[in-house]
């Protein structure tokens, strides 16, 4: 692990995508930025995906992160929602892969556990703990921003144990580890 790195965290979504960036220096972290990408104004799903890709690329170009940590879609009962969320995650991952940034994937439960010690913590509990850890003053209006920040902080806490999440450093690695996602079955 290098002594200094920037970690870009993403909470994917098709209406609101949250993101956060932290800088690690040694064993200390500080928040660089957090925010949301509002997508609800677009009624076309393909256009939402295009905006996720473009905005993720622009954030990468602005902040030059060394690693990208992303929340994995959770398995819910609504298959359509899960499919759309998976697409949003995939497009954000594609932007990172396009810029050759290593990607680490964590389950929502793993992120909450890492931040609060409770895998069932609420968004508010996660935001409150992040406020303490990173010493920022105000909660954002949309807690999706702190969810994106939580993915980055979770990755920091995992340190060299990030193997627990999925890691993809290139398209080639992604395809090797996910042949079922490329054969049309």
Q: What is the N-to-C succession of helices and strands?
A: EEEHEHEHHHEH
**N-C termini distance:** 38 Å
> What is the overall number of helices?
6
Unreliable parts:
none
Structure classification: alpha/beta
Largest sheet: 6 strands, mixed
What name does CATH use for the topology? Nucleotidyltransferase, domain 5
Radius of gyration: 15 Å
CATH superfamily grouping = Ribonuclease H-like superfamily/Ribonuclease H
Helix content percent band: 40-55%
| Overall average residue pLDDT | 88
- Based on CA inertia axes, which overall geometry fits? globular
Please indicate the percent range of residues in DSSP E strands (runs of 2 or more).
Answer: 15-25%
Order of strands across the biggest sheet?
3-2-1-4-5-6
CATH first level: Alpha Beta
How many separate domains?
1
Number of strands: 6
């Amino acid at each position: 692990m290098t002594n200094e790195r920037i970690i870009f965290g993403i909470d994917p979504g098709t209406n609101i995508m949250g993101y956060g960036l932290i800088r690690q220096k040694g064993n200390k972290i500080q928040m660089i930025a957090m925010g949301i990408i509002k997508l609800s104004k677009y009624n076309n799903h393909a256009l939402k995906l295009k905006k996720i890709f473009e905005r993720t690329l622009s954030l990468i170009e602005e902040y030059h992160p060394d690693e990208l940590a992303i929340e994995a879609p959770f398995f819910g009962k609504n298959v359509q929602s899960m499919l759309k969320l998976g697409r949003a995650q995939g497009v954000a991952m594609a932007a990172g892969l396009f810029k050759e940034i290593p990607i680490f994937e964590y389950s929502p439960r793993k992120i909450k556990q890492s931040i609060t010690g409770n895998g069932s913590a609420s968004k508010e509990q996660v935001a409150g703990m992040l406020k303490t850890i990173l010493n920022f003053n105000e909660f954002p209006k949309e807690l999706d921003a702190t969810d994106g920040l939580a993915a980055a902080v979770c990755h920091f806490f995992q340190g060299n144990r990030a193997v627990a999440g999925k890691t993809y450093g290139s398209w080639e690695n992604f395809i090797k580890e996910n042949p079922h996602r490329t054969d049309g079955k």
